[in-house]
Design brief:
five-stranded antiparallel β-sheet, about 20% helix, homohexamer
Chain lengths: ~210, ~210, ~210, ~210, ~210, ~210
Amino acid sequence: MANAMLLPVLLSFLILPFSAMALTQDFCVADLSCSDTPAGYPCKASVTAGDFAYHGLATAGNTTNLIKAAVTPAFVGQFPGVNGLGISAARLDIAVGGVVPLHTHPAASELLFVTEGTILAGFISSGANTPYTKTLYPGDIMVFPQGLLHYQYNGGSTPAVALVAFGGPNPGLQITDFALFANNLPSPVVEKVTFLDDATVKKLKSVLGGSG
Amino acid sequence: MANAMLLPVLLSFLILPFSAMALTQDFCVADLSCSDTPAGYPCKASVTAGDFAYHGLATAGNTTNLIKAAVTPAFVGQFPGVNGLGISAARLDIAVGGVVPLHTHPAASELLFVTEGTILAGFISSGANTPYTKTLYPGDIMVFPQGLLHYQYNGGSTPAVALVAFGGPNPGLQITDFALFANNLPSPVVEKVTFLDDATVKKLKSVLGGSG
Amino acid sequence: MANAMLLPVLLSFLILPFSAMALTQDFCVADLSCSDTPAGYPCKASVTAGDFAYHGLATAGNTTNLIKAAVTPAFVGQFPGVNGLGISAARLDIAVGGVVPLHTHPAASELLFVTEGTILAGFISSGANTPYTKTLYPGDIMVFPQGLLHYQYNGGSTPAVALVAFGGPNPGLQITDFALFANNLPSPVVEKVTFLDDATVKKLKSVLGGSG
Amino acid sequence: MANAMLLPVLLSFLILPFSAMALTQDFCVADLSCSDTPAGYPCKASVTAGDFAYHGLATAGNTTNLIKAAVTPAFVGQFPGVNGLGISAARLDIAVGGVVPLHTHPAASELLFVTEGTILAGFISSGANTPYTKTLYPGDIMVFPQGLLHYQYNGGSTPAVALVAFGGPNPGLQITDFALFANNLPSPVVEKVTFLDDATVKKLKSVLGGSG
Amino acid sequence: MANAMLLPVLLSFLILPFSAMALTQDFCVADLSCSDTPAGYPCKASVTAGDFAYHGLATAGNTTNLIKAAVTPAFVGQFPGVNGLGISAARLDIAVGGVVPLHTHPAASELLFVTEGTILAGFISSGANTPYTKTLYPGDIMVFPQGLLHYQYNGGSTPAVALVAFGGPNPGLQITDFALFANNLPSPVVEKVTFLDDATVKKLKSVLGGSG
Amino acid sequence: MANAMLLPVLLSFLILPFSAMALTQDFCVADLSCSDTPAGYPCKASVTAGDFAYHGLATAGNTTNLIKAAVTPAFVGQFPGVNGLGISAARLDIAVGGVVPLHTHPAASELLFVTEGTILAGFISSGANTPYTKTLYPGDIMVFPQGLLHYQYNGGSTPAVALVAFGGPNPGLQITDFALFANNLPSPVVEKVTFLDDATVKKLKSVLGGSG
């Protein structure tokens, strides 16, 4: 009864501060139609629960390709709900014999959860060029520090699956071979900066779709 | 042959800059025997590949408890390799009927991967108190913004499992009911700040091990 | 005289670098008509001294309401001058018997200056659920760490006033009771995630304007 | 009864994860006996509620001095509870005719609440050297962007008091006159970098306790 | 041959993930036609190699002015490629007898490389007003902490040149004399906040183009 | 005279706040004898002007080696004054025909000033593997975004020299060839993650001092 009496008063309390606070930023779902900024995309005006969930990692990636592996990203470009939240995800499918070749994520550290199969993974420190390698089984996790070269490959006789999280909404993915061979960087330049010979460079350019 | 001749020269190049650069910080595995700092623990002097992998999430948590759920953390305290890397992990096991009660992570956003079962999850915005709720199936992911109240419960008829990543090495976990009832905060204070009645507060204090 | 002669030269010095540097960002007063970004609002083009001062905290908030208290914010939404500057403010008025109920600020720590009356304040740690409580008198200050549950209530026999600062321009305010009861989150869900009984949940939903 | 039965189970749940989580960093009260780090002091091992409150701003500073003003800081050095929390405070007392001379805070923006008297305050932008000045009365607030030159003086006929918050635990305070004249920087150097004449520099060095 | 066969498969791999990842933010060249944000300018849509190089520091600045020195900036306003990258540059030319007067950079630390001549440089700490001064020769570097007052002058008998880097894309430059005397801040205010006498203030206002 | 009278009063003002503020952190020169932390080294207790200057870049590096180039770092390990200041430096000497091979800096963007000779430099974006290449002459600057693969080589007929700044005190340097070939990572692993053939891998391991 007392409560019923107080209700109108309380509601006026509710209405005032909360309309005044309508600008509070709990989250900032990316409006991908706008230009990005150094801190992420501008926020979408109207948001629903669907913006915070993503189904694209439920399906296995297609591993019928040269590397017999697929990386399915849920970065801010695919999953705008992570914009500004300091986290994103990906799914890794690696067929028997498959590999995620040597690569870096320039903008975030990576945390890998193995859910199926056996994954051989490693990263290399910059200071001393020390390799840190592990054989990972379902349930194991491994962390790869930001910006360091690392790789994963299927070390078993069944397909491997891993879920991957990144400590940033847009970690990037730079695969060394693609950076070197899947573009028009002239072969002499590639040779100069890698010490690879001309035949090797030209062969890999041909395989990976590069020119020059 | 030319290469063989150049080898000593090159090695002197290798040795000089790399001994000079021995202090480069690619990572900073926590030395948990030291005091923490606002940016994380001091770095351990000697590191191996094992510091970057963790096996503690491979085993299901014990859900034989009141909430019929278990949160198994791989934060910096359990997995020192994530120190300074902006990421950490946890495993969530929820039996049929189980729940991870209303809680926040004060220091990081959360990203949940459902691997088994059905999870009903939601968070509540601060500005407008809007609930954002989803039913999640295996393969689905959902993001929970830093510091906002959220919950997960098993919405199906089989046990549910989720892997969880956080955008920080030490996200914290504040379960509202435990904060209110699992300590010696006097009942009149709890009642005053929650509008709950004395009987409810005392009952929950009794259930959750609090006093006062 | 010498100075007078040098004046034209100097002015050309002034004009060149300073027109070139017209883009220097000393501050970034929010243009609230634009979309927010994860780092704050885009900067307003034309700025005056008035953008850096705010008068809205000079007047006591209206405490004639259920909680007998009022929080008057000077966040970026009310005081656009703080955008990007890592600080904001609020005023707290608490009548005799009034309370700022259990709440968090997801995006900043809080620093409270008591200017009138007696305030009982406390926060609860996440790890061990330890309450940290103090009785504060005029001139006392207290700090509440980011994201942790806390409360303030008038512990005296006269009205209490506090000035509050936050270590961010948009700290957010999530009042636990409002998050649970002032919306349409279904009662069975609220009960599940809080262990409150149906009658308690329905009563509080009714008092706080919620449904479901 | 059901609850009573479940209690032991629940407590085991409580004990396991929470002892495991004893390292969670909700806060990091400074251990001032340790060396500082770029992110703040190492955390004190044992903490009480008293670490989060501070009484040093309750008393007026002594304004019987040349500037007829006193700045009483509650930075991390005086109030170790703010370490790592992105906020700190100070109290400003300005007698009639008193002034806080031209100064900067290199490491945080400032937010000033006037509680008594009239304060004339201003800051100067770097790009265009534009002054932004305001006359502030009790209840008014003003923000001073990080690193920019600013000042406050008593513009009325009664003592003025202000509470000040900073968006960092250790903002620093560099008073231009003290930086120039209250040390042993040789007068010719001071003259060269300020265009002041020798007599002016020597007089101010004498007044402010400098030499050379 | 095997490779040739696999090529179409691989290319489909290349095309899928990389079109999906077209939003990856490796860099964010400033679109200076947009409003700035607290984290920098929105990113330009179309980028070429020319956006990452800048020629404006190749030419000596004109030192025929009162201070016999020139600061040529390559901040984000001149060199949009540094937007969001945490670095920028400038060139310093100081004729014999020239000086870069007392100044601060509110938003970044500075690193100076001397390439020609002799530069006397110093900064002053805020806490104890301690001057830290050095005579620098070609090849020497010196670092000036963010926000602290510092200066450089030619200490030799030939022109001096330095290249300067800043740990931020938009460091700002606040020259104390220009902040005080090159605007319309009233002389009595300047005198009050600096303890300079009226004649000195008015003379410097006249020299530096100020009024009032 | 009035000033002389006020002097004792003022000095008491000086002494009080400045002893109280002895903890202000204007800078944090690294104490390299302590463990690093994620935010940098603990601060050295006693500091002189010499801590902020460094002479190690004044001398040309020795380019009599396989790559005909030398990178001389002034990172926090060599130049402890930059600790916590968000900037560091290096000197690059490249003989005719020399090259700084493909590499990344995992922890900072790079800004290169060419001071002598002609440098061909480039980086490769991660998203689209686009090369961004430039020929740089004395006075030119170029920026290389954090974590992206890049290279520099002498493109002229005289020795080349560049000064380099990094937007962090400890940027790291990971040379791809050294990461792959200058350690004991087994050849089959290297082949798997790079698509290089066994002969190439073994030859480069031999040249660069690796085994396995």
